[in-house]
Write a structure and sequence with these properties.
4-stranded antiparallel β-sheet, 3-stranded antiparallel β-sheet, mainly beta
Length: 106
Amino acid sequence: MLAEDMHATLWDSGNAILDLGTLRGSGDGEAVGINASGSIVGNSSSLYPGGVTTKHAMLWRNGSTTDLSTLGGLNSYADAINDAGQIVGQAIENPDVDEIVCVSES
């Protein structure tokens, strides 16, 4: 992790701090929502060869990280997760078109 990288972090009720990490182990991560089951959604950016940076929506659940994909474009964003495990966010296929998406964590 570089000094300028930011990672999503979870503080549990016992005051333990858990670094949720990022996709591909580099770049930034941010958490934006958590449900009653402890599933967390957020976003992770990664730098690819050639200098292309992408941001993908991600799910942290039971110690595992899942890339929620982009529907074919470069970027996606998770905005919230409810207690039923439904995740709402955006997939951006090109700079002029945002698609609103809803997926289930199960």
